[in-house]
Amino acid sequence: MEADQNARLFRLPFKFPSFAGLRRISVYLSGVLYAVGFWLFLDAVIYSKHANASDVHVTFVDWIPFLCSTFGMLIVNSIEKNTLLQGALSGGGMSSFAGSDLDSSMAWQARVVLFFGFALLAGGLSGSIVVLIIKFLAKNYNTYPTVGMGVNNVLGNFFILMSCVLLWIAQNMEDEYSYSLTL
Amino acid sequence: MEFKVSPLTKIISLSGFLALGFLLVILSCALFHNYYPLFDILIFLLAPIPNTLFSKSGSDNANFMSDTPSNVQDTGNFLTGVFVTSGIALPVVFYHCQLIGALSCVMSMIGGLIIYTSIVVFSWFFHSSWDQEEDTLFG
Asked: Where are the bilayer-spanning segments (chain B) (predicted)?
């Protein structure tokens, strides 16, 4: 009883989640954000097909930013994080082993692929903004139900980017935690 | 738990809840002669699958190495979040696109959530009893 009260600093009525619980919650939240982005974009597509009163429609050009964001998220989150960490540890030192040379080349490849992933994500977001400006705003489609298709596209790509960032943070948090445990 | 509920009562009440969920979703379609909300049932039936597929190996791994969940379990959690949010967002999107009415949207959302909750509570009730059976079997 006393140890329990000493362990808690504040007398809050709820307990803070443990570390693994926090990680799991942030992964769930990342999935929720991805689904929100996906459905925001799909809302624009279905709206254009079924309830559209104007003469501007969603075509394949509007799909390209979404596809870029999704591919970028797949690439970024399928990279093995330990490869990057090893590269950061062994790439800085000037060791002359044959093995560390292999390690640094692997880390270099991982960095290039990671750069492509983040470039795809950023390209998705900026591409959706470009579509919004060129296709809707520059042609004076300013009233809301029509311009909403472009705005939904931007918001959807933004939510997908946020989801990817949250997933990345959650997984890197775990790496540091287990690293300090093994130390 | 102070009071003991027999497993038969649990099964009967849960199946009642499940049937209520299906009734709500099917009613939301049939009252308006518009069968788009049936997709909601499909999504909410798919939603418990990733956690059941990925959590078994994940828990084995966690027992074996450490307490932190593995990447496999992360995939399951991520997909669960995606499916549950999709099930809630689908009627809202259909309502916004004027495919279904407001009442149909609310009914199919509540019905889908009832279906998902009853499936999760079902697996939660009987997962612990299976663990106990395993303990009595092998311990």
From this structure: 12-31, 75-95, 102-126
Q: pLDDT per residue over B109-133, tens digit each?
A: 999 999 999 998 888 877 766 555 5
**Across the interface, which of B69, B82, B85 has its CB nearest the CB of A24?**
B69
How far is B120 from B128, CA to CA, in rounded Å? 13
Inter-chain CB pairs, A–B, below 8 Å: 78
**Who's near A42: CB < 8 A, 6+ residues apart?**
B93
pTM above 0.90?
A: no
* CA B139/CA B135 separation, integer angstroms: 5
SS percent in chain A: helix, strand, coil, step 5: 80, 0, 20
ipTM: 0.80
Residues in chain A: 183
Tokens of B9: 């009562």
* B-chain residues near A178 (CB < 8 A): 66, 68
- Angstrom distance (rounded) from CA A121 to CA A171: 18
Q: What is the DSSP string of A71-93?
A: HHHHHHHTS-HHHHHHHHHHHHS
| B22 contacts B110 by C-beta, under 8 angstroms | no
| Chain B positions in Cβ-Cβ contact with residue A34 (cut-off 8 Å) | 78, 81-82
Instruction: Tell me if A27 and B79 make a contact (CB, 8 A cut-off).
Output: no
B34 at A interface, C-beta within 8 A: no
Whole-number Å distance between alpha carbons of A113 and A52: 40
* CA pair distance B45, A101, nearest whole angstrom: 50
